[in-house]
Amino acid sequence: MEQPNLSYIQGMSGGDKAFEKKLINIIKLEFPQEKEVYYKNVAAKKHKETAENVHKLKHKISILGLEKSYDVAVAYEENLIEGKTELKKEFEAILQIMTVYLDQL
Amino acid sequence: MNCIIIDDEATARAIISQLCSGVPSLNILEEFPNAIQAIKYLNQNEVDLIFLDIHMPDFTGFDFIDTIKNPPKIILTTSDPKFAIQAFEYNCIVDYLVKPISQERFSKSIKKAESFSQNKVNESEETVADEGDSSTDNHLYINIDRRLIKIDIPSIYLIEAKGDYIQVKTEDKNYTVHSTLKKIEEKLPTDLFLKVHRSYVINIKKIIDIEDNSVLIKRDVIPVSRSNRPELMKRLNLL
């Protein structure tokens, strides 16, 4: 499975290390909150709300350079909008990989 | 150009702000996590360019554009390419950036914004103003708990003044708003609404019956003041 990386953040920061650190801290703060809301809505079977959570999370997936995972998130979001939960397992595996990666930063 | 950023995601705001910091002609005035706060800011401040997220809870980027009367230049920022076609319906929209936004694509977008002709903005202002005027025939936005709620004007049957507030009664729901009868009267079509008393404006199409000095609307008996009665009688289709 593909692994997260900081290529995008380093590319857009223009070498500004302070900004890179600041952005990572924002992601580390915001990601667990978004993840928590996602799991709550999944448990409550609120598909529309869950789709909105996935929508927001997919930006962070792309920021961490997870291109294939981003496609999974897009498809999962569409499934949820249609009331289906296919790709749930795959999406949650992506969240787990991101969690481990962010914890190491 | 003086700019503001509207995005419910802090990460996105930080990225756009950083990208802006690399462009000397851009000056970020404020950042907002939702469109409602930005609307209040725009009522009191001049802004040249808005970076606007489309997908926000409760009040989307398009709702925001529809609400403001003279929108400045807008660059949409979104994770959803599917809204691009809708974006072309608005003359004020300069560009459409899909997240994650690259430095290169951002620079292109700013060049577009800088060369975006004033005529085009003016066109946009007129179009939106026209839409605004026509939309007031049908709906009205009221501010409740920092949310702008859309109300279908013909569904309003009664507005009652209550101190610093007014109560707007509609077919479905009642709303208490911090405003005055005078202010709401200015927003309502005069052929439909009439002030019958210093504390009441009624929708004349919803009258059930009239007695000497009162009207019955739904289950509300509303007093009609002596001075307003002739105008009310004039507006009725009397036999």
TrEMBL record, chain A:
InterPro entries named in the record: HPT_dom_sf, Sig_transdc_His_kin_Hpt_dom
Phosphohistidine found at: H55
Superkingdom to which the source organism belongs: Bacteria
Swiss-Prot/TrEMBL GO biological process terms: phosphorelay signal transduction system
Positions of the HPt domain: 16-105
Entry GO MF terms: protein kinase activity
Keywords: Kinase, Phosphoprotein, Transferase
Keyword Transferase included in the entry's annotation: yes
Stretch forming the signal peptide: none
Gene3D superfamilies noted in UniProt: HPT domain (1.20.120.160)
Entry keyword Lipid biosynthesis: no
Protein name: Histidine kinase
TrEMBL record, chain B:
A Pfam cross-reference name: LytTR
Entry's Gene Ontology molecular function annotations: DNA binding; phosphorelay response regulator activity
Keyword field: Phosphoprotein
Phosphoprotein listed as a keyword: yes
Modified residues (4-aspartylphosphate): D53
Transmembrane segments annotated in the record for this chain: none
UniProt cross-references to InterPro entries, sorted A to Z: CheY-like_superfamily, LytR-like, LytTR_DNA-bd_dom, Sig_transdc_resp-reg_receiver
Classification via SMART domains: LytTR, REC
Domain Response regulatory: 2-114
Domain HTH LytTR-type: 140-238
Stored PANTHER family: STAGE 0 SPORULATION PROTEIN A HOMOLOG, TRANSCRIPTIONAL REGULATOR-RELATED
Record's protein name: LytR family transcriptional regulator
Origin species: Neotamlana sedimentorum
Taxonomic placement: Bacteria, Pseudomonadati, Bacteroidota, Flavobacteriia, Flavobacteriales
